[in-house]
Amino acid sequence: MLNVNELTSLAEELSKASKKGMKIGLVPTMGALHDGHMELIKQARIHAEYVIVSIFINPLQFNQADDFINYPSNLLKDSDKLKNAGVDLLFNPDLKLIYPKKPAVKIDFGNISRNLEGAFRLNHFEGVGLIVMKLFNLIKPDVAFFGLKDLQQYVLIKNLIKEFSYPIKLYGVPTVREENGLALSSRNVHLSPSGLNIASQIYKGLVWAKKNFKTFNTSEALIIQLKKFYHPQDGLTIEYCEILNSNTFKPVKSLQSGGKITLFIAAYVESVRLIDNISLQE
Ligand code: PAF
Questions:
Q1: 0.90 cut: is pTM over it?
Q2: If you take atom 9 of ligand 1, which residue's CA is the nearest one?
């Protein structure tokens, strides 16, 4: 595996791969790789002949300085995992290479970025938009892989690809979970064994909601009961719990209506912010 952190070698490697007619796959990450990332890479190896993983902790998508400073990072361990997974190139640029100066351009994804993560993490998606566009422009992948745990991010990237006519096929990869249902996340390393156990309640609540949602007429009624489900769990603080149409990201009032209905949640355990979602109706 090649480890590249500047643009000339990146361009050379990309040109060699495309001369060989290889399909280029990109898995953008912020490092601290876990089995969820490895699943993205596995999919990339199925759908592309030359797999690039980027590791860049993008400061512009963090709305809290502490969250950025404490974001887990372990490049040596990550690099070993990527080698073992058969990745062709690790792109690990530094801050100056990506943002030689403070970007003046802002990416606004419109209404679908206003709620959920967009509402609770101010400017988060602006930052995601900038880094993803930079990576797309520098790497020009044929296929790109994003996790469906960040479903709102996935839908925004899908819109970005369409609206900016990027010739990129996007793959959304299902969330990988611990045996107890907890969605894998780089942030889980900050949780104690008891925190991990508390955090596993998040998915249990989502599964409960999926099983029971047909018995409720409105999202409001379901959410009230879901909050009661979570209430006895000390140490779990719900930030949001919302039921939306996952194409439009508009709130769904009646659970008897058609369309794609997804339940989204963000919660804190031991000061660690965790998100998850479950599809209630396809
Ligand atoms: O999902 C992530 O890890 C990040 O938001 C991404 C897509 C790598 C952009 O920094």
A1: yes
A2: 128
